[in-house]
């Protein structure tokens, strides 16, 4: 086998490899081990670079709340309509993160993982820079929500799926480490943003973020690649056959239910705790515990998937997340149970994001993992858009802002629906109860 090392994706020239790549639906474990063809450090560089890009993109999404709070409290004081417009920006970011998944996954496979990530990084930096000159909230919606949102949408799918292409025995752990960048990025960038806003201004915090995005992101992009890529595919060769597979539809619905449920506890648990007499400072610590647990869960569940199987780990994660909402949330009125709720929910809900791309590869083949996972991320956008407002409507219904029991039951039911669908696909893959799947 000869390798074109000048190509940004190091394309394999072996006919046998080409056949393997073009033939979809192969099991992950039957894919050629890239460690036999590439230096060991290459795959670790891929994981590290994906970790950095995930941290930059999602970390900035998580830190927007700091800038939003400052603008609402100091710039647009008393201007209700403008403050309401500001609240849409975070939703737009979250929505865009998934909306462009289908396009990004497709472009990564037919064009280049590395080049696509670089384009996304540049668009992210431009969005932040343009936002620094905005004077009105609607302008921030366009720059932060749309432009920056497009950038993070282009990098999220490739960096979520690239590590799985480099590993066979530790594929779950590699993916878990890469997507753990989301939580670590939030833990680092949110305090940094708060410091920059306090010491300089929102405008300069955005400009400085544009600088470190382009510097750190460009360096990381260089190492984002996959070992083997089918260069015979073109922009016109999108594979629509997946939509005819009902297992694909089952997995897509599972993704929809998870994404509709995922963000609700993070958004409403602080309000629930304060409503039950816990101070706002303590509530912020409890939600921070959930975020830390989320980062740990992304790595730990990926590690577990290597030993007990991806689909088995996914079923277990969904089950515990559902139980957390049904059983723990209604009784998390004190600090003790609140910590347990944060740990259990954060660990398993975060762990899902490690397992989601791995499960797609297990069910539908690793050779088209980016495009398939991208489709599921686009489905996630719909769930992200609908899940929060529906939860808010339940909360503001009977009880007038205090119907947290109804909200927890709603979120638990979404996780339960996802669990049932995951079990269906797991049983279709293998009916052996103790099989490592």
UniProtKB/TrEMBL annotation:
Domain Major facilitator superfamily (MFS) profile: 43-430
Protein name per the record: Major facilitator superfamily (MFS) profile domain-containing protein
GO cellular component: membrane
Molecular function terms from GO: transmembrane transporter activity
Membrane disposition: Multi-pass membrane protein
Pfam families hit by this protein: MFS_1
Membrane-spanning ranges: 44-65, 85-104, 116-133, 145-166, 173-192, 204-228, 248-269, 281-300, 307-329, 335-355, 375-395, 407-429
Organism: Coemansia spiralis
